[in-house]
Amino acid sequence: MSRTAILVGCAELPEGDGDEHAVPAALTELGFGVSWAAWDDSRVDFGAADAVILRATWDYPARRGEFLDWCESVPALYNPAAVVRWNTDKSYLAELLDAGVPVVPTTLVEPGEPAKFPKSAYVVKPSVGAGSRGAARFDAGADASAHVAALHEDGHTALIQPYQSSVDTEGELALSYFGGIYSHAFAKSAMLGSTMDDSGLYLTEQLAKAEPPADAIAVAEDVLDAASALLGILRAELLYARVDLVRGADGKPLLLELELTEPSLGFRQTDPAAAMRFASAVRQQLA
């Protein structure tokens, strides 16, 4: 039975950033007709597709309301609109922290509220954002009030986190899951100070294949279980998830971000079979 799948990018990246180079062929092998489209392309009938898969919709932070309205209008969206709404505001980190997940300490500063800064080095970023845009690192004792004020002026809640120095030596570890099942992992170098891609939508990263240690896998599993419980869904209902971890000062893994909306999944940094695992997970969602 022939089915249709639309991989979704944005006007600047209508066919993504190249990470999914092997995914269309894998989906085709499993009986899908595959195309790419920008999410705001009014010429495309997204409602007619069997699966509409968010991949590189990286212009949404400046148009989040419009983007969420579009998500709500697409019946076969993956991940679903309710997941996207929750996950595109990093205040979800506070919810996961309250749920007992080991999260990098996170303080949210709403517009109009005063900010208190850590005594150690720290990072300030908007609660709604992608590709590390608007994120800045500050040294111990530095005053980031101007940066916070700028974020507030743009209508953002500011998110403040102590800088995890392990990023400088180990970087981040990203674990990719398809249909709630672990697929592979890859390492990410520090993004702060990286250069912007030509699209202007994300900072370039140095990525490499990685084998996650047992403690990292255990935390990632706890993260997905906690997030699924907060969302009221089964883990299997998440077509894709990327769990980004860093090591804390005590050497234990901490959640930096949980990406359930449009993350790069590291297909180029893992085995060729990952694309087929993803395509199979798409079929599982439709079943």
Automatic annotation (TrEMBL):
<keyword id="KW-0547">Nucleotide-binding</keyword>
<keyword id="KW-0067">ATP-binding</keyword>
<dbReference type="InterPro" id="IPR053191">
    <property type="entry name" value="DcsG_Biosynth_Enzyme"/>
</dbReference>
<feature type="domain" description="ATP-grasp">
    <location>
        <begin position="93"/>
        <end position="287"/>
    </location>
</feature>
<protein>
    <recommendedName>
        <fullName>ATP-grasp domain-containing protein</fullName>
    </recommendedName>
</protein>
<dbReference type="InterPro" id="IPR011761">
    <property type="entry name" value="ATP-grasp"/>
</dbReference>
